[in-house]
Design goal:
The protein has 240 residues and is of the alpha/beta class. The protein has a domain of 149 residues: SPOUT methyltransferase, trefoil knot domain (Alpha/beta knot, 3-Layer(aba) Sandwich), CATH 3.40.1280. It contains 10 helices and 9 strands. Strands 5-4-3-8-6-9-7 form a 7-stranded parallel beta sheet, sandwiched between helices. It has a two-stranded antiparallel ribbon with strand order 1-2.
Length: 240
């Protein structure tokens, strides 16, 4: 989804409507210089024109592992589509990735696909079929969402029908498929490198204003008592 839908600006914190600059100014002193530099670096390279989608994946560990890979490669958003079950994160595997990746949950593949296409995303699904092409044949300089299906059957028939491309990650061994978490890491790494090396797309697609908005959210997520600190600062500001 578009950045503004994922991270609204101005922000709502408790009962207050707050600008990103206000959040940054209020919380900056509570963070170490090292942490501030890390947030600046991460935000500068965050990507929202490439996103991840996981459809009906059974293994919670696989979901969390792929989310961890997507965050490590700079993606800022992911979609979990589950018709019959609800996602529960595995902190043991994700290492806190859910704090830095915006996770959108969906109960319908078609509703999700309609929303993504209305925002200009192409849907690229991993699937082993006669229609599938090597992932290297897809142009990822366009806004794209990379889809992984479940461990047993892959993507659903609905996902097949809405996909703009069905791809495979070429293999030269006897087995026909990678584990979901491995396929996710390999596919996302390919997309990231392909955009940088061939499409000459900058890794990091946020405007300076959007970077400030994301930075404000990350400041809050970096502090266990971030909302309380901010609430106190807002009350002091209103009392003046």
């Amino acid at each position: 989804m578009k950045f503004e839908k994922l991270y609204p600006h101005p922000m709502m914190v408790e009962a207050f409507q707050v600008s990103a600059k206000m959040v940054i100014a209020s919380l900056k002193s509570f963070l170490s210089d090292e942490r501030l530099a890390k947030i600046d670096q991460v935000v500068q390279h965050r990507v929202f024109s490439i996103q991840l989608a996981l459809e009906n994946i059974y293994d919670r560990g696989n979901i969390s592992a792929v989310l961890r890979s997507s965050e490590a490669l700079g993606l800022g958003a992911a979609h979990v589509i589950e018709v019959n079950q609800k996602f529960k994160n595995s902190d043991r595997v994700s290492k806190g990735a859910e704090k830095w990746v915006k996770i959108e949950r969906w109960g319908s593949t078609l509703e999700w696909a309609q929303e993504m296409k209305s925002q200009g995303f192409q849907i690229v699904s991993t699937h082993l079929s006669a229609k599938s092409v090597p992932i290297s044949q897809v142009d990822f300089s366009k806004p794209s969402v990379f889809v992984l299906g479940n461990e047993k059957d892959g993507i659903s028939a609905q996902m097949q029908s809405v996909s703009d491309h069905q791809v495979i990650i070429p293999m030269i061994g006897f087995v026909q498929s990678f584990n979901i978490s491995v396929a996710g890491a390999l596919g996302l790494y390919h997309i990231t490198r392909d955009r940088q090396m061939h499409a000459q797309v900058q890794h990091g697609d946020l405007s300076l204003e959007q970077q400030d908005t994301l930075k404000a959210y990350y400041y809050l997520n970096s502090l266990p008592s971030g909302k309380e600190y901010l609430h106190e600062a807002l009350q002091r500001e209103r009392a003046r």
